[in-house]
Design a protein that fits this description.
alpha+beta, 9 helices, five-stranded antiparallel β-sheet, globular, 11 strands, 297 residues, 42% helix
Amino acid sequence: MKNGIKGIRRVSAVAVTAGAVLTAGAFTAPAQAATLKTPTIAAKGGFVMNNSTGKTLFTKAADTRRSTGSTTKIMTARVVLAQPNLNLDSKVTVQKAYSDYIVDNDWASSARLIVGDKVTVRQLLYGLMLPSGCDAAYALADKFGSGSTRDARVKSFIGKMNSTAKSLGMTNTHFDSFDGIGKGANYSTPRDLTKLASNAMKYSTFRSVVKTKSTKQKVTTKSGGYRYMSWTNTNALLGSYSGTLGVKTGSGPEAKYCLVFAATRGGKTVIGTVLASSSVEARTADAKKLMDYGFKK
């Protein structure tokens, strides 16, 4: 019987030890979670959320209104994609006014559209979102606004941008331009822009465009021939951050450096915005920090 008693004691000791390990594990897990440090970013404003649940993962002056630069073009694309009976293959003739606009505005980035060329709406969306073409934005506003004059159509299109913002609950947003080169009344917040991007990502065409690193598009020339337009995405996250889905860069003298971003890892999608970062490199670094944090949270 002595051997039996020793056996029981040995089993009990093992059980107690195993229990102690389990108990210790239960207490150490929350301690590890608590060590997740909130990142510091160069941007003056930031917001990140879980795209599936809408849960907020990070905020920094998330509801402070700021100039948005070309992140405005997310709304330009969103308004176009919501048009009833949209034909992405319909052609738009490039007008002189679009190229003149680039010349007249120092901060206007260009898709290098050539007057007289016929480009499709789909191609204009690539020209809008990859090289951030203000000429492409102008062409889309002229095409999808209502009115008998170009000015009236542009005004109508900007009106659609603002009514869409209202319908999406973007309470701290106002647009006074189709491209972000505003006249003092073009502003949004990190939270509102993230909300907009999340909604825009529901459109398959938008998703396809913003995740494209570069593209070569065949367009019809004025004489009926064709040429190729090559566009590269200004979003440095593409190809440098695993799981990146897009979305859009922005910059300007007042806006500084902005980035709306999204990525998926392990079945989780995080989406967010940084506004008024200090440089192109800083906005990319800010986004990477915030996504790393969002995936762990």
